[in-house]
Structures are given as structure tokens and as C-alpha cells.
Amino acid sequence: KAGVTQTPRYLIKTRGQQVTLSCSPISGHRSVSWYQQTPGQGLQFLFEYFSETQRNKGNFPGRFSGRQFSNSRSEMNVSTLELGDSALYLCASSLAGGHRYEQYFGPGTRLTVT
Amino acid sequence: DQQVKQNSPSLSVQEGRISILNCDYTNSMFDYFLWYKKYPAEGPTFLISISSIKDKNEDGRFTVFLNKSAKHLSLHIVPSQPGDSAVYFCAASANYGGATNKLIFGTGTLLAVQP
């Protein structure tokens, strides 16, 4: 079974631009979560989608948004990029709802904002 | 407010010996705990989990121990192998009143297994 895939793997953007990252979960998984990893803050929860609905959101500004499609694929968007948005963005999928399901991570998208 | 803490940024052990990675948490609502391993330029890989109704879970060379009264968990790797060298993250989750999958991660411990 294929794992979680994320595209693109690397991205360089300029301050003020916007970016869209894509995540395809493991086949059959319906929950997709997004995390931001930075050296200073570690892994931080952005948001989670299940059946095209956002169920939970972390403590990030409204510039960070996401959505999920009917095939469970998910995208996250960051508008008006800032230098501090440079990070590894990780997507994770799990079989269903509920906090006792293991999450499986993709390789991440490395975003650099210049 | 760091709810999940890994106080050792790094750990070095000899091949064949035991590696013990520690994790402390502050939120008593956490009732499910996971360990992930991460290599550079890759996403975290799920290793092992434990529910708060248990105090031990084993999977091959990996054992996780949970001490709820101390709000402490540890991951034991026996025997340690050079391929185990990676960053290990402890993560916790709670029932936030809905079926959500939010994980709170520690800052990670870099394990180096010396041949």
C-alpha cells in the first residue's frame, strides 16, 4: 500500500506570495492532519480534516488555511508569506476519526521564504 | 507552554546496549501516547503507542512504559543498532470533545548508536 505523498517536496517563495501544498493520504484513510516543523518550535499542529470538514485547528494565524476533497486528498494554503513561515510542512493521515488512531506521515514539503 | 517535554536533546549509546528515551507531560487529559522516529529529510515514522489504561506495551525491540502518576513515559530499545540512530519524538493526544487527531509533540531526542 502506498504511503502518504506530498507535493512538491521543495519550494522557494518570496515574502508576500502565497503557496499551496498538496497531500495524498494512504488509501482508505479519511483523516488528514497538517503539522509545521521548525527548529525553534518543533512539530506543531496546524489543522485536521475528516470527510471534507475541518475538525480542529491549531494556534496559527488565518493566513494558514486548508481543505479536503471528497477523495480525502488535502491541500493547505499559506497567503502573504512571511520569512517565519519557512519550515517543513508535514501531512499525516489516519484511518478514521478519534484520537487513538496512529497517524502516518508523509515526507514533508520544505518551504523556504526569501 | 510545552505540554510534552523531552529534556534530553541527545543520547549516545553503544551498539547492543539499551537505549532509554524519556518523555514527561503536564496535561492530565492526555490518554494516548506515541513514539515516532525521524530521519533527516523524511517524515516521522510511527514506532509504538500506548493507551493510558496500560503501563507497558512491547513490539519487538521496542518497549514503552507509562507512569501516569509521574506523568512520565519512556521508550526502551534493546538491543540498540546503528540503524536506530535518528531523532525520536514523543507525542500525546487527548479526547478534545470530538473525534479529532491532534497530536502534541515533544521537541525530540537525537539518538546516536555507536558501532
Short overview:
Chain A contains no helices and eleven strands.
Topology:
The complex is a heterodimer of chains A (114) and B (115).
Chain A: E1 5-7, E2 10-13, E3 19-24, E4 31-38, E5 42-50, E6 53-57, E7 64-68, E8 74-78, E9 87-94, E10 104-105, E11 109-113
Parallel strand pairs in A: 2-11
Antiparallel strand pairs in A: 1-3, 3-8, 4-5, 4-9, 5-6, 7-8, 9-10, 9-11
Chain B: E1 4-5, E2 10-14, E3 19-25, E4 30-38, E5 45-51, E6 56-59, E7 62-67, E8 72-77, E9 86-94, E10 104-105, E11 109-114
Parallel strand pairs in B: 2-11
Antiparallel strand pairs in B: 1-3, 3-8, 4-5, 4-9, 6-7, 7-8, 9-10, 9-11
Written description of the protein model:
The complex is a heterodimer of chains A (114) and B (115). With 114 residues, chain A is mainly β. Chain A has strands spanning 5-7, 10-13, 19-24, 31-38, 42-50, 53-57, 64-68, 74-78, 87-94, 104-105, 109-113. In chain A, strands 2, 4, 5, 6, 9, 10 and 11 form a seven-stranded mixed β-sheet that branches. Chain A has a four-stranded antiparallel β-sheet with strand order 1-3-8-7, with no helix packed on it. The mean pLDDT of chain A is 93. With 115 residues, chain B is mainly β. Chain B has strands spanning 4-5, 10-14, 19-25, 30-38, 45-51, 56-59, 62-67, 72-77, 86-94, 104-105, 109-114. In chain B, the strands form two sheets. In chain B, strands 2, 4, 5, 9, 10 and 11 form a six-stranded mixed β-sheet that branches. In chain B, strands 1-3-8-7-6 form a five-stranded antiparallel β-sheet, with no helix packed on it. Chain B is globular. The mean pLDDT of chain B is 93. Chains A and B meet through strand 4, strand 5, strand 9 and strand 10 of A and strand 4, strand 5, strand 9 and strand 10 of B.
